[in-house]
Amino acid sequence: MEDLIIYLCEDTPDGIFTAIYDAWKSGIPEEGISIQAERNHAMQMFTEYVYVQTDLDKAVKVAQAIENKIGGEAYDMVYHAALSCETDRMDAIYRFLKLGFRYGRRVTSMHGDERVCRLFELSRSVRNEAHAFREFLRFHDTGKALIARMNPKNQVLPLIGWHFSDRFPDEDFVILDENHDMGVFHEKGRRWYLSFVDRGFIEEVFGQIQSGRYEHLWSRFFQTIAIAGRENDKCQKNMCPLRYRKYMVEFQKTPVSDLVGEIGGAIDRGSGA
Amino acid sequence: MNIVNKLSLEEKLVVLSDAAKYDAACTSSGVDRKGKLGALGNAAACGICHSFSADGRCISLLKILYTNECIYDCRYCVNRRSNDTLRTSFTPEEVCRLTIEFYRRNYIEGLFLSSGIRKNPTHTMEEIYQALYLLREVHHFNGYIHVKAIPGADSEVIEKVGFLADRMSTNLELPTAAGLEELAPGKNRKVILAPMRQIQQGIDDEKSNIPRIGKAGASFVPAGQSTQMIVGATPESDYQILTVAQALYHQYDLKRVFYSAYVAVNDDSKLPAVGTKPPLLREHRLYQADWLLRYYGFKAQELLTEERPNFNVYLDPKCEWALRHLEYFPVEVNRASYEMLLRVPGIGVKSARRIVMARRSSRLDFSNLKRIGVVLKRAHYFITCGGKLMYQTKLDEDYITRRILELDRRKNWELEYDITFRQLSLFDDMHMGADSAGTDCREETDGRFDYLSV
Q1: What ipTM does this complex have?
Q2: Do A134 and B14 touch (CB under 8 A)?
Q3: Helix H segments across chain A?
Q4: Residue B309, in any domain of the structure
């Protein structure tokens, strides 16, 4: 049996694309090659390792080749899959691209092929998670900037960055990903950028943030809008899974003030006027 | 009327969102708008949910009434004049502040402003206009706004509002004019349809580039209009309701018709008693049928007739149709037309499209169909792959009906008893995107909508 050759690369789209470039150039048949993330890799026996040095030129070449030969749709899928947290993501991309360079644009409609399906799956789950954070991310207003934190499984931050900078062009905002130690930074009227951040920094920033007036108002709205007697915990969990709720203000445990008493008081004051 | 205006913002928010919670629509879809420098917000055609309340419904918009004061005494309405409840109103500034501060924190996609009628319809519409003007023109809010058109309001003010809102809706209230007359003294069908026609006309004019009074570049109700009707307060049949909906889609170009299972909130001799269970399962079937009208090429008259005016609530309408037309089945997946694939229970719009694409490059078998997203446990009775059925089954109405009822029993039970699944149906705006041609976010979301591809 031939030994397996494993390319170990940096866990970023650029790192992955560089590894694909190197693996491709090696001319070794696909069965003999695997690409894996350098971080947390457990070494195996009977395996040859190649350490990939991330090279922007190579990465760009791969990206362009995909765009030109397989198309923009395929590129998007590959890019999304590259942000996935699944350990087979790099191999899945590599095998999909082998197929793609053979069949061209047609490959994206080959729903019957295992390799195409796997790539779709990876890409879909990244996009789904990105979408969930577009829905469920919550900003706090510190008076200086809007700031949010998130705990995604996949590296969805770049996808989120686009969305919020289009939405809040006039705001200074920061989004911090505590699982990947990354942040999106946006300054009013400028282009946003992505940067690595220190975990301690995230905790420090959020240690100082306190829930304010609008957080409270929102929680009240959230409680009021539900129709009593029609509670449906299962459906709610289905649509908004627990792991997303960690930083959603409306799901934080705060003592709920006595609504009846308050409104009662209001009526008293009102009728006295 | 117990009118209190000295409430805090929080107290007003509680009263006026509580009064708005029975409204069915909370979608933010139908319009794509990029952000722009100097403004706050954008809009995504697929719509975005931001939270899910304890009843499982999506929260996309800040859904509030401007005021819950009302001159009308509609028997089914929680805000009817004769109810002794606390009444209050927002000011335009308050609506504005809440919308903007919630939006900046990513709690909402925008505002859904409805209202009771204070003084008279024109006056109320004018107040709503003030709030929208402040939001759009003074604070440059560029997010989503859905607002009610108030029947009986001056057409000029409705027009002005139309240039600031993304979507407008006029509530039909009840499916037929007779029902309306019975339960809503002071309202009539003609008055309700007038603004609907006006808005449709406005949208049409814009499409044909007829110059209008609006600001240069302003778009008139770009996300279209919708309506809702209450189901179960009056004795109309499903057939009547669906025919009305079909007519609204055809004659008024509505984007959506919402169905709202009547919640017995008022003690009234002409209505189901307080505590009567809302007909949720029936509402659900109507949503499914509505879906079939809009995306699957069905006509109301195919699904129901004068002789068979109501759905079997235990079967979804597409299945019911297929079971009554077994002569069309089984269909060969590798050859059937797209239109026919759409009529197969268990194949939705997306899987039908994928089948048509995928079969160009290879013959499809059942395992391919499964990966494509076909719900085989439902579909397998009705299709063949390469001339073969998946299992040895017979094409017999009673047999298949029994099997499918077995599959659905649990789901139906949930629908009928503890759950409101209505919100799922509401997503469809965000889902099928007839108006948003591109990929759309919600639909991609891991088959949470599987059941919709009936």
Answers
A1: 0.88
A2: no
A3: 13-26, 56-69, 72-82, 89-103, 114-136, 157-167, 199-207, 213-225, 233-239, 259-272
A4: no
